[in-house]
């Protein structure tokens, strides 16, 4: 199944962290000929209910001004001046508002900035980004605060050979093709044995037969700890983007449930694209 991106949702709070996601959204929109909805969510101060309407009007005026400035800034860049970009202001809880906007706007992809890894499990990606990744019906690209857009020369796809990997790898190849990226398919195994080698070779054969993407290689890393294995690999390979499947995998639950302060350093620097794999 190919990944067709015609509309991108770009949540923003107008912070420096949110701005990190902007060039990724703009480039993906340009190369896919897609439109963008930039949205901001106003979390209402329920403790001041009698003043709520006045506060809402004031904040809305400020947000509209910020949107106007941001759109003017984008329009000054000739490569993006023709993009179709609209804006949306929602009220309520941030993560729920983003998920609802993605549904209403029929977004194919959510691109958002995140606080990145700090070694503390509750703020690994930021609570909003984590909730959106877990509940979104469409792929989510999270861009940490310490990353920057320099093209997508090399994409690393994480696999454990489970259901959905082939579809997700095809979707990764769809994006890679837009940027002429190299793809490395990475599997972390606890030990090297006949079963591991057989599964690795079998997956390579299946991908080679079913996917038509030439610039792709495969790596098998032996490491008892999955996250440490990914970190070890990324120390030796320059990567622009990590992609992985959300469902039917232990990957994401491991990232959210444990504290790997040393190993998780790369997650504060590299964008992560979470695919549905369905």
TrEMBL record:
InterPro entries for this protein: Universal_stress_UspA, UspA
CDD domains assigned to the protein according to its UniProt record, in alphabetical order: USP-like (cd00293)
Domain UspA: 6-144
Superkingdom as given in the UniProt entry: Bacteria
Pfam families recorded: Usp
Family: Belongs to the universal stress protein A family.
Protein name: Universal stress protein
Provenance organism: Halalkalibaculum roseum
Lineage: Bacteria, Pseudomonadati, Balneolota, Balneolia, Balneolales
């Amino acid at each position: 199944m190919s990944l067709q991106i015609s509309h991108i949702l770009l949540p923003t709070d107008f912070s420096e962290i949110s701005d990190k996601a902007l060039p990724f959204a703009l480039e993906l929109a340009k190369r896919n000929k897609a439109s963008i909805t930039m949205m901001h969510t106003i979390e209402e101060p329920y403790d001041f209910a009698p003043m709520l309407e006045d506060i809402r009007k004031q904040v809305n005026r400020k947000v509209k001004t910020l949107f106007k400035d941001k759109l003017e800034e984008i329009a000054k860049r000739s490569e993006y001046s023709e993009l179709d970009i609209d804006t949306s202001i929602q009220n309520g809880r941030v993560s729920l508002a983003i998920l609802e906007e993605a549904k209403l706007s029929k977004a194919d992809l959510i691109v958002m900035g995140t606080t990145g890894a700090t070694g503390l499990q509750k703020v690994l990606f930021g609570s909003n980004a984590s909730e959106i990744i877990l509940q979104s019906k469409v792929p989510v690209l999270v861009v940490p605060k310490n990353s920057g857009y320099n093209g997508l020369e090399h994409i690393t796809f994480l696999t454990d050979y489970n259901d959905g990997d082939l579809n997700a790898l095809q979707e990764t190849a769809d994006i890679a093709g837009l940027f002429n990226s190299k793809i490395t398919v990475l599997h972390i195994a606890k030990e090297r044995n006949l079963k591991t080698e057989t599964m690795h070779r079998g997956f390579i054969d299946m991908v080679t037969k079913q996917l038509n993407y030439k610039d792709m290689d495969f790596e098998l890393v032996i490491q008892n700890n999955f996250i440490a294995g990914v970190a070890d690999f990324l120390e030796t390979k320059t990567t622009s983007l990590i992609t992985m499947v959300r469902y039917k995998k232990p990957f994401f639950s491991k990232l959210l449930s444990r504290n790997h302060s040393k190993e998780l350093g790369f997650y504060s620097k590299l964008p992560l694209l979470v695919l549905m794999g369905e």
